[in-house]
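Q: Structure tokens for this one, please.
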Amino acid sequence: MRNEWFEGYILHVKDFSETSLIAEVFSKELGKVSLIAKGAKKPKSKFFGALQTSNKVRVCLSGRSDLKTLIEVELIASLGSAVLAGSAYSYLYINELIANIIPKDTHAEDIYHAYDKLMRESQETKLDEYSLRAFEMGLLELLGYGIHFAPDEVATNKQSYHYQFAKGFVIMDDNEGFSYDEMVALEEGKLHLVSKAKLKELTKEAISHCIEGKEIHSRRIFKKLKS
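A: Here is the predicted structure, written as tokens:
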């Protein structure tokens, strides 16, 4: 690769040395790619301030190794502190999820478009829990693990539906799972009619299988903040 331009989002940034940074970028053309920005921490650097998590950027990269070198960067859009103030955890979680679920150098245009749509919409409307769950379920669909409901019978008041990965939903004699009405709402995409707690557990279980048990560290951080 020699001085090629790509558009993408900054998923993660970490220190490399006293003056440089390593960033992980999610792009339509390359998928997930790592780059080194030499001298980016210097106030007079042309990269200074652009490599912030969740920023949308155009980057010019070079290099043939897994770690590309950043030549130029142009800021396209920044979520800004006002947006992040109420949803910082959600963006941290989304970025970590993308970083874990997509193998490096794997093209994932459909996932990129879904991510880009979510990020653009979040600049107009606060990213709430239902939007996050909808994104997770759309992501699972794109990965081939879509969650669908096809009932053979109507559950009674003493029965509820429980999700089992790769098997779907099974009926159990308790009141702890999804009700029949919630399952219909789930299949129709009317997530606002379903319990937030149940939705969260549903997507958490499905996603944990997709990332093969890798830990999502932002979940642990959020638990500490709430405790």
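A few notes: The first strand starts at residue 4 and ends at 15. The chain has a mean pLDDT of 84.
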